[in-house]
């Protein structure tokens, strides 16, 4: 399926905020963020980056926070919001299949849990610890790896989810990583943690 434009995505998922991150064990909380920004994401450079060919992501690696996960495909839930990965003991990240694939022009969106109920920690439990300049690698179905650099990390209230910043049109290939964060409110977390990243100008490499 051809990915929707960022503008259409923003319209289609106005109410999107990653819900259902799963309640963790009673003494668990989201990993504290080293930095929290409420400003729009900063871009690393004005240098144009050549987009990659469309190829579905099959894996994601973030060395600085110990993430190395398979990636599943996600669509829309019955209420029109973005699906989230199932709450299981083999927790995985999920790529929103109506967004560009990693490395295509536009915002490619990947979601993951911070906790997965009785199973404990989720795959994105340390997402808030990312720093600007950290690396993210998306392994693609065609055997190449798209490499990204984090440009900003934001913690925002779910009620104020920045839909346009996450799903809106951008000039180059970018990546959005989303999970829950902040204090727990009942069985849910109050906030979302969003990491913004840009494709590195270097050519992709084989896996």
Summarize the helices and strands and which ones pair or pack:
Blueprint: H1 6-12, E1 57-62, E2 67-74, E3 93-96, E4 106-111, E5 135-140, E6 144-157, H2 163-167, E7 173-185, E8 188-199, E9 205-206
Parallel strand pairs: 2-3, 4-7
Antiparallel strand pairs: 1-2, 1-5, 3-4, 5-6, 6-8, 6-9, 7-8
How would you describe this protein?
Keywords: Hydrolase, Signal. InterPro entries: Sortase, Sortase_dom-sf, Sortase_F. Pfam families: Sortase. Residues 1-19 form the signal peptide. Residues 25-55 are annotated as: Disordered. The chain has 207 residues and is mostly beta strands. It has one domain (6-42, 54-206): Sortase (Sortase, Chain: A, Beta Barrel), CATH 2.40.260.10. Helices cover 6% and strands 34% of the residues. An eight-stranded mixed barrel has the order 1-2-3-4-7-8-6-5. Strand 7 (173-185) and strand 8 (188-199) form a beta hairpin. Mean pLDDT is 80; it is low at 1-20 and 22-42.
Radius of gyration: 16 Å
Please name the CATH architecture. Beta Barrel
What is the β-strand count?
A: 9
Mean pLDDT: 80
Number of domain units: 1
> So what's the CATH class?
Mainly Beta
Per CATH, what is the topology? Sortase, Chain: A
Name the strands of the widest sheet in spatial order: 1-2-3-4-7-8-6-5
Strand content: 25-35%
How many H/I helices? 2
Signal peptide: 1-19
Keywords: Hydrolase, Signal
Region (Disordered): 25-55
Biased composition (Low complexity): 29-45
Compact overview of the structure:
By secondary structure, the protein is mostly beta strands.
